[in-house]
Amino acid sequence: MSHIAEILSSISNTGKRISTAARNNRKLSLFLLFSFLLAAIIIACVSGLAASPKNSDDNSNSTSHAILRSSCSSTQYPDLCFSSIAAAPGMAANLTSPKDVIDASLNLTITAAERTNFTIERLLSQQGLTLREKTALYDCLVDVDLTLEELHETKEDLKMYPQKKSLPLYADHMKIFLSAAMTNQYSCMDGFSHKKYERKFREELINSLTHVHQLCSNSLAMICNMTDTDMMNAGNTGERRLEEQVAEDGFPTWLSAGDRRLLQASMVMPNVVAAADGSGDYRTVSEAVAAAPTKSSSRYVIRIKAGVYRENVEVPKTKTNLMFVGDGRKNTIITGNRNVQDGSTTFQSATVGTFSNLPGI
């Protein structure tokens, strides 16, 4: 009997231990389940908070890219237009209008033109360059400098658009600046012939000049599209634009009253006189130009008396507001003799040209 009692007691104790273990297992299971659910809830909340700005950014980027693609669709090189802006860090993130896209395109064009300038300076630093090669490279530096100036002028007009001036005037100014910037790239390349000794410079510059030209073209196309659309919405037709540009006296409306008087006057009072016979302030036109004030805010009139002036007159861009008045096209003659044979370029052979002097030549 004692033996049976021990067995029953052992069975009872085992049952109690099993029951206790089961309860502990259930508690552990419930604790683990609760912990898992709590962790899932926390992760979901954090993910939701993180997802909201991302979705907002995605929507913003989607809108910006849509505006970018729409603006670029009006250009001659749409793939270049879209990819160059989209790939630039931070440039495509906040595009809200076609004006923003044009501004981004102009910034890229300025950067590309500056790189071209560095390339030209590197080529000029080479030893053993011929006079012709130096002249052509200096021409390119002038062309790039003009391009950068015209691009910055376009950006200034774009920044104020359409607040200060009339829509047609804004449109004409920006189109003129960018058209000139495009032409400068051709002027640079024209300085190099296809002869073997000059071909290396063409090959060094052709890609960068073409790139700048295409970027200018894209900016110009987008400006045309934007301004034409705005003028159409404002009711500015082509006829109205013409009327706005020409006043009753036949001169453009942007011409100042003072300039109108100068152009209409039968006699103009000059600031200085150039006379080949020595009867004026200077014997050559170039001397008169050199003596003119820099960055003049008013017209500076140089009278060129009758005679033959055998010179190439170079007008640096710092000599602003110059006005030449001759004694008639058959009486006042300016003639130069620069040509390709003597090592000059077409750019340098202009009888009267507006460009910087070439140092070191």
Automatic annotation (TrEMBL):
Top-level lineage group: Eukaryota
Name of the molecule in the record: Uncharacterized protein
Species name: Persea americana (Avocado)
